[in-house]
Structure of Gamma-glutamylcyclotransferase:
Amino acid sequence: MKPQDVLKEKSSLWIFGYGSLVWKPDFAYKGRKVGHIKGYKRRFWHGDDFYRGDKEKPGRVVTLVEDQEACTWGVAYEVTGSQAEDSLQYLNMREVVLGGYMMETVEFIPKEKGQCPVLALVYIATSDNPIYLGPAPHGEIAAQIALCRGSTGLNIEYLVRLAEFMRLHCPDVEDEHLFSIEAAALNIFSRLW
């Protein structure tokens, strides 16, 4: 679905973030809600050769992988009017052009009781992307993250901020993939520096 098609259908829309968007959306929005989507698990399987890595040492960032039993926690941002157009232009450059992500529509379920689910746009990197790295043992992913740096900073900062978000906003959710990679990467990082 193209951004202009999304905008024709609604005066406002929701955008779901599950990686760096949870702490750094970099676009104006009307409101934000913590919550989750079902049918996907978050994995550090996507390469990043710009923001958190480079061409010689690509970093690892998260993408979503279909899994009917899973859910992924994050933040949905409501954007309206010109915010919607501006945010989609920004995200399409950041996620699609530079990152190789595609856009999907998902049902977002807010954490706060009594709030209705909303349809949200989400960006997902797939295995047919040239910088998709795919699965690897947690220790290998952690070592790669501990060593990489890109134009916006250290790859480990991305990992730690995502883990901090989960601990602060979703303290009852156990994200084994995220937390085991964080523990291993911090161990490696502390020995290097």
